[in-house]
Fold this protein.
Amino acid sequence: MKTVKAFALTAAMLLTPLVAQAGATFDAVKARGVLHCGVNTSLGGFSAPDSKGEWKGIDVDVCRAVAAALFGDASKVQYVPLSSQARLTALQSGEIDVLSRNTTLTLQRDAAIGLNPTGVTFYDGQGFLVPVKLGVKSAKQLSGASVCVQSGSTTELNLADYFRANKLDLKPVVFEKLDELVAAFFAGRCDVYTSDTSQLASARSLRSANPDDYVILPEVISKEPLGPYVRHGDDQWQDLVRWALFAMIEAEEYGVTMANVDEMLKSNDPNVKRLLGVTPGMGKALGVDEKWAYNIVKQVGNYGDSFERNVGKGSGMKLERGVNALWTKGGLIYAWPIR
């Protein structure tokens, strides 16, 4: 009989909604009143200051979404520009609260160095940008070519692996800072620029004198799921960053946009009602206001809004959605259900 009662009590506990328990990072950020978010030093479409010094990009929008969820104000972010080499150390040391800087989610970063990935903001892959005048149609024709590559990234390892596997002669030209690398490539100091294809498209569109003078080769040599990281040790903070991103994705799936979010408060769809806090409970579970997701969509937009204005057809990069379309439209972008 005691066993039955104990089982019933355990089952009841498991089914009882729990309020999130605050952790060190969550408490510290909330008390500080501003989010410290690590971003790229300058990568158009993802994180870069505009002509007015205001940070813009997909990765920047993730920072803003977290601030909107926690504070109700997407502007409460201090952006910390970080090089590829410094980004992980800055998160480990506590210099930043979240790293949202076109960083690949990998096993080693997740399991070996004390960081937690929170979700995928952009599915990418490494490619090669070359001048059209080079006359190259395939990466397998690059033996002996000089290749500009950034140090301290998975890009450097992928490059070496690809050239070794295909028995190609590699002549790397290594740079620590992205701006120096891009300038060197367009100045003709190396034949090839290798990086994530999104980064190549950004450089070609925004940094070259004539984008038509350059072509991205067809080979994609790696999987590069990009997304934000947090430190191990604060599950509530990890939850908040993850679900801030998922809220943007879920909002697009249900047709909730920056333009119509107020009207959608009247929706009869139970999914939309939970998302926007009309049906309470989601905010309490995260330890924030019930309007957390409403604030994200109202101030930042949904995932599609962010993609379109930063890297889509409405931007200078003009990227197709491709694998970054919603799962309902043949892509890989998928949020866990908010319920």
Observations:
- The chain has a mean pLDDT of 92.
- The radius of gyration is 22 Å.
